[in-house]
Amino acid sequence: MGSISFLMPNPVPGAAQAALRSACFATGYDQAPVPSVIEIHDNRLIVTKTLNESGYLLIPWPVGPFGTLVTATSTIRETDKPYRLLIELARGKLNQVRSQTAEWTAIGLRTPLNFDQGLSETTKQFGRALLAPATESDSPAARVLEQSFGLGDQLVREFIGQLLDTRHQDEGLLETRLAARSASGPGASATEYARSFNAAQVSLRWKDIEGEESRYDWSAPDRAVAAAKAADLPLTIGPVIDLAPGMLPNWAAGWEGDLPTLAAFMCDFLETAIARYKKDVRRWVVCAGFNHSDALGLGDDERLRLAFRLFEAATQIDPNLELVVSVAQPWGDYLKRAEHTISPLTFPDDLIRAGLKVSAVELEVRAGSTPRGSLPRDLLDTARVLNLFSMLGLPLELCISLPSSAGPDPHAEAHGQSVWAPGWRAGPSVEGQAEWGASFAALGLCTPHVRAVTWDHWCDADPHLTPNGGLLDASGQAKPLLSRLRSLRTAHLR
Description:
Number of strands: 19
Strand content: 15-25%
CATH topology of the largest domain: TIM Barrel
Shape: globular
Helix content: 25-40%
Strand order of the largest sheet: 9-10-11-13-14-15-17-19
Radius of gyration: 23 Å
């Protein structure tokens, strides 16, 4: 065990106070969190960790107009002397921006007008903050932190635009799939859906389909598959098995902790679904949330073995299917709890190394909700994670979502999900969802090794995990994000 302490600004911003307990220590090239205990004494943040080695502090912190975002220090080592928190956060973000700028300009990125001057000036401002007395450094360090986030945002948006232009010159309109998940299809809004997306994805909620053992009701997915075929849209089904609370039928959830029996039930449901639709559907998201946690009392290794069984069962039905594993919290937020030992990068890698046919890895980029969602990150750190997962050597798919309201949402509450309150500057809104969703979708679409971008759910009247995260509200009215995604589809996709 080791500990590191940080002098916090006085006073601590109110938005930061609400999020301090979400801080943790992280190590390694992937910045994977490690089990951490957070204490606050005498205006000091004390992080006690399980590993006696250098690493990073990850902490959600309010950053001006960007709201509360996770930011990381540069590498720090254990020392008896406390670090100045805002100095280290500013150092970490500025270093990330400078490093990514150097990497992207080396492959041909042209930096935006006045960007280089702004980066140079921010670097000088950091030097002045670093040399200031401890009692006077917080204000200039906070300005450097905000400016660094602004520069990072500007850099990524320029990267997205230039990479899309380059890909269009080489490929024309892109083959990347853009879809929104739906349990029963777009219904009366089918025309609107077909104008906005070039693919479809049908979500399955096991409890709705097999409410009683061996008695199935396929009416909802049948409608969704028929709608996709009628619109001539390439189709994906899944996730077939999701371990979020409330996804499994009551009769199956009663076998909590019994891995062999649960595996048999899940494989039977997966096999039945594939057999029903395999003539029309070749791409399947087999499982989701297995790396994160579940409501069944299974440990990390048991969930990994369960995923192995499911992929094995699907392959035996048809070895030519495209099988996708979905990874929750790709930044590994859950790893700060000691019961979790398998990182989001390691989980799919273990399946691949075991010889299973994994065609792609889906990353859930769910922001602003808990417990399934990740703590909010900016575009720059999301680009880093996409690059990190490219090490697996497989195509990536993105499932993205953000709440549009903090109001009650019975569907999400039934799955134990809620809005993460500290993550908002002025609360979630449809306008905020539109800006975030369009930006993160564009990042996915520009990235060559990302083959699909899927909005988590089409309509708030459908079963879903992200509170109020649909493109249509519960009454079927379109939110502003839908037109933003339609513009992306028209501009960039076949």
